[in-house]
């Protein structure tokens, strides 16, 4: 406590030298800070206060480049000029520029400070204590991945899987850009890869499959591969449809106009541009579409999802009363599919997990279950009975990866533990039913074992048959280890 007080006093002295406050005011501010820190450990309201305090001190969020955050755009352009603003989306600012960034990070709401939820984890999800969530009994066994840096690709993301007539798998993905990772090789169009071993290994196919700069949904319908995406138009993004007889060569077909603005929220307001349209056929023969809102009108971490229906998979109508998200962020594109048993499955990516629900009509749903944290999922029941799941993840130094897994039954029980931020990004799990030597911690985007990585560490504590696994990696710049997973047992069950 004495050491903490000395640190606080030193900080206050520094602040005073800059603001000419009196010595009496210094002591009082130290005592106030100590009171606030005590309260932060116990109440959610003070966690919000702590986050605001960090911003008013001009500190840049660890997990975000402010030059890529639209919430700071106006202030930063005014501060640096438009040309330098664009350069700093890809360059590290100088020491002098870092000081100037603080001018846009600590102002009043609407004057360079983004709305709550932009540029930082949502309040309540940036944990200052600890929180635990047990993953679903839907266990995922890791199969393989497609990694951007290994294949000279851009930010590979938004997988859409189909099974071809010869039993091979083809995955379509967007070859996008991610400035934070300094990745080249992108064109923001749809590319593809094929697998002959059920998703374990993949071969990248040359060329562009679908010339749209949005993610797509691809389904096999009547022996054709149908692909939907969004195409820019003068009045907003327009839903487009492409068809292919062989899954490799696609041509555009005309469909009735459906624009992103045709999706309405519950108050009748048009939604903004939308992400990957996830589409499935329902048991009654009609069709259902879910699509993520790319930017929330109230902040980046309040995004919603549009729901639309179609009688024929050609003409679409928004269903505002079925829209979801907002209070709980739709972080990336959701996925919805009719499985081989006639059950409709829905995966909703949120900040910490992928939420899984199921139902029979696309309208009423089961209670939620929780899958590993990831983005842009897609899944498919294969003809051999395998239930395949694909999703993506990204790290600023590692680039991105498309990750493939299959569902299995397992006796392992895996709980994800959210812990207080530390100076070194870390991640903790609890595992029941396994031994210490059954557990491996890997960065899938880089294909490395953290136990063997300089600057990283893996600690496993065992007590009464329960393992507590904590991984850290000083090489990362995100506050969380987004590409890091545990693989448990010979089945490589993911957590």
Which key phrases capture this entry?
single chain; mainly beta; Neuraminidase; five-stranded antiparallel sheet; 36% strand
Spell out the blueprint of helices and strands.
Elements: H1 2-19, H2 23-40, H3 44-56, H4 73-80, H5 82-87, H6 95-101, E1 131-134, E2 139-147, E3 155-163, E4 169-176, E5 190-195, E6 203-210, E7 217-221, E8 224-231, E9 238-244, E10 251-253, E11 278-281, E12 287-292, E13 304-310, E14 317-318, E15 324-325, E16 335-338, E17 344-349, E18 354-359, E19 369-371, E20 375-381, E21 387-395, E22 399-408, E23 413-418, E24 426-432, E25 439-443, E26 448-449, E27 456-463, E28 466-473, E29 484-488, E30 493-494
Antiparallel strand pairs: 1-23, 2-22, 3-4, 4-5, 5-6, 7-8, 8-9, 9-10, 11-12, 12-13, 13-14, 13-15, 16-17, 17-18, 18-19, 20-21, 21-22, 23-24, 24-28, 25-26, 25-29, 27-28, 29-30
Helix pairs in contact: 1-2, 2-3
